[in-house]
Amino acid sequence: MRTGFSGEVAGYYARHRRGYPPEVIDAIGRTFGLGGQDVVVDLGCGTGQLSVPLAARVGTLVGVDPAPDMLTRARHAARDAGRDNTIWLLGDDRNLPALGPLVGDRRLAALTVAVAIHFMDRDLLFRRARTLLRAGGGVAVVTNGTPLWLQDTEWSPVLRGCLQRLVGRPVTAACQTDEAGRRRNRDALAAAGYRYLESSVRYAAPLTVEDMVGGVFSAMSADQLPAPARRAAFADEVRTALDGRDAVTEQVEVWLQFGLLDRAERFGADR
Ligand SMILES: C[S@@+](CC[C@H](N)C(=O)[O-])C[C@H]1O[C@@H](n2cnc3c(N)ncnc32)[C@H](O)[C@@H]1O
């Protein structure tokens, strides 16, 4: 049974996960010189948090994800934003070569992977992507900050304590949002022959307890979700542990790691 990112989890994801600020979309657009003729694939697109704003900068945005419930949310988000230049495909990283005949030789301007690279065989993916990308295009690996329960703030350990009581074990998974995870991306992009660039976008933003708790549930699999009454009790526990506060301030750091194909590159050999 597939339980990852399905059912209610997809709903929590769409409603409570932070999207990406315009600076992130700008950086991707600038790096690959994106424009109205370009086709971009957002692999592991989830509910379209990155894909939908990125679609405003390109000709066609192809969102690919193995979770049907996430894709449906992405499609609705695109419709609500009036982004008719999007198409949503059920698939995963292993299916990337199947896009070749659709986009034509070297016609892809960029492949983006946001908070999903830890699910993929990145070495194979980056090598295969080269055969689809146009000169001056490339791969963008995006990380949307450290998980809420592992941040270096006064409220994050409080949340972690509540979460550990809920699940009955220590919670340590960082989903490769840390330096070690970024190093793996950097090394794999370099090994696949891309020119490597990186940058980050930092900002402070309010985080409501509702979004904090919804964000936690969005990171669980459907079969891990507590019963609805226990979820409500968890939200109360978090609020009480935060001295009754309804919101805190989150310091968000979005990392962008780019693998670039040089503008002069002409149908370079696959590696
Ligand atoms: C944490 S979500 C990120 C969603 C979105 N990119 C964002 O930034 O909000 C991870 C997504 O990766 C998808 N995923 C999991 N395994 C995958 C794979 N092997 N290939 C492509 N996507 C995958 C999941 O279904 C999920 O939608």
TrEMBL record:
Pfam families: Methyltransf_25. InterPro entries: Diverse_substrate_MTase, Methyltransf_25, SAM-dependent_MTases_sf. One of its GO terms (biological process) is methylation. PANTHER family: METHYLTRANSF_11 DOMAIN-CONTAINING PROTEIN (PTHR44942), METHYLTRANSFERASE TYPE 11 DOMAIN-CONTAINING PROTEIN (PTHR44942:SF4). It comes from Micromonospora radicis. This is Class I SAM-dependent methyltransferase. One of its GO terms (molecular function) is methyltransferase activity. Residues 40-137 form the Methyltransferase domain. SUPFAM superfamilies: S-adenosyl-L-methionine-dependent methyltransferases (SSF53335). Keywords: Methyltransferase, Transferase.
